[in-house]
Amino acid sequence: MAQDKKQVEQITDMEVDFAKWYTDVCKKAELIDYSSIKGMFIYRPYGYAIWENIQRILDGEFKKTGHENVYLPMLIPESLLQKEKDHVEGFAPECAWVTYGGVDKLEERYCIRPTSETLFCEHYANIIHSHRDLPKLYNQWTSVLRWEKTSRPFLRHREFLWQEGHTMHATAEEAQAETERMFNIYADFFKDVLAIPVVKGRKTDKEKFSGAEATYTVECMMHDRKALQGGTSHYFGDGFAKAFDITFTGRDNQLHHPFQTSWGVSTRMIAGIIMVHGDNNGLVLPPRVAPIQVVVIPVAQHKEGVIEANRAVMDRLSAAGLRVKMDDSDQSPGWKFAEYEMKGVPLRLELGPKDIEKNQCVLVRRDSGEKAFVSLDGIEDTVSRMLDEIHNGLYTKALKNLEENTYACASLEEVKTKVAAQGGFAKTMWCGDLECELKMKEEAGVSSRCIPLEQEHLGDTCAICGKPARHMVYWGVAY
Ligand SMILES: [Zn+2]
């Protein structure tokens, strides 16, 4: 048992050092490895498999709503990037450039895409001519590159994986509806698939995407009460379309500029999963994206018929569409328990000679540690139901953390005191001025997370300057 104990001890307690706990989990659960370039990570099979599940489910949602996947080049000519002023100002500091092709210096340097609005616009200018060409509902799954100064696994990579949807519409109303539709798909995905509750809102002008008219965001609270921006959906109006000279002939036979959206989520969601659900024994995965939903561990596997009985149960669960693995390696059961706890496998199924006699098995939940003896009759349904219970249990626990650490404040002083003591989300009234937003950052160390769609009336005046208030805002320390 000494070896089993050691395996668990290798991760730092989250209460002692949350950041260290986080990187320990990323490494010990075999999600990621470091490469020789700072900020560029290797997604290991187990980590990549989580992304594949996310991708498969979201891609299905995109297709159900009429979107098509495309692939655009990874290089953007500098002149193209510069066509939209706010956009280039926002991204230029993080761009990496290609300046040589073989041994020749290029006449124009190329940016490695930090995002692809400009490339999509160039393409759309070529293929959109008539109202019959609209809407264009495109998405691409790809990697992007942003030359960050600091890096952490999944949270901040120089190169990371994401999807970027880019759509064009004949009217502003249609584009606005698309922005909201995709934003709601993200919010539902967080709740129904990742078991993470979100605050749905709009970004302030300071925090919105470079070049966007409006940015919608889903904000999540991590276990350490810091905020993580989960996904964003942007409405561009016709600003980019004008800058890129994209026009179409309307039903009225006049030339018009189309209206545009973009929306994206990235492998940062995996950081959210780790930091919302994980515990001191390692990762805790929400069942709907877990690469292994049930691990089957034979007990006294040297005895006759044990492996066969275990394999039969595994086959039944697989046939029912569940993701199952049986571990009949020569490691001790204790070692296996610790290993799959570390990897956050939602359910462990143990089956030994005595269980086989009684036509039962043992199920152990990763989230709560609860142990149950259940009949092998109808094991498929029992396991499916228990996976749903785990999903709901994880969601309820995360919601409790969010609700208990979101509080109203009437003044900047109150925000300062409470944020320092408790972290979490402080909600206040706000006049809408950038000055007050900057003051909040300077003095309380928090940024505006969002202007929630569900507004509450906490008072008539801005908590910072005392002028008439326009919105209720959530503030927090963000990753
Ligand atoms: Zn103010």
Q: What would you note in describing this structure?
A:
This protein has 479 residues and is an alpha+beta fold. It is 37% helix and 26% strand. It is built from 15 helices and 23 strands. It has an 11-stranded mixed beta sheet, sandwiched between helices. Strand 5 (97-101) and strand 6 form a beta hairpin. Helix 1 (2-9) runs parallel beside helix 11 (333-342). The longest helix is centred in the C-terminal third of the chain and has 26 residues, at 379-404. Mean pLDDT is 95; it is low at 1-5. The structure holds zinc ion (ZN). Zinc ion binds at residues 431, 433, 436, 462, 464-465, 467. Catalyzes the attachment of proline to tRNA(Pro) in a two-step reaction: proline is first activated by ATP to form Pro-AMP and then transferred to the acceptor end of tRNA(Pro). This is Proline--tRNA ligase. It catalyses: tRNA(Pro) + L-proline + ATP = L-prolyl-tRNA(Pro) + AMP + diphosphate. GO terms for molecular function: ATP binding; catalytic activity, acting on a protein; proline-tRNA ligase activity; transferase activity. Belongs to the class-II aminoacyl-tRNA synthetase family. ProS type 3 subfamily.
Strand and helix map with partners:
Elements: H1 2-9, H2 18-28, E1 32-34, E2 41-43, H3 45-64, E3 68-69, E4 75-77, H4 78-81, H5 85-91, E5 97-101, E6 104-112, H6 117-127, E7 136-145, E8 159-169, H7 172-192, E9 199-202, E10 214-221, E11 227-237, H8 239-243, E12 248-249, E13 255-256, E14 259-266, H9 268-277, E15 294-298, H10 306-319, E16 324-326, H11 333-342, E17 347-351, H12 353-358, E18 360-365, E19 371-375, H13 379-404, E20 406-408, H14 412-422, E21 425-430, H15 434-444, E22 447-452, E23 471-476
Parallel strand pairs: 3-7, 15-16, 15-17, 20-21
Antiparallel strand pairs: 1-2, 4-6, 5-6, 7-8, 8-14, 9-10, 9-22, 10-11, 11-14, 12-13, 17-18, 18-19, 21-23, 22-23
The protein binds zinc ion.
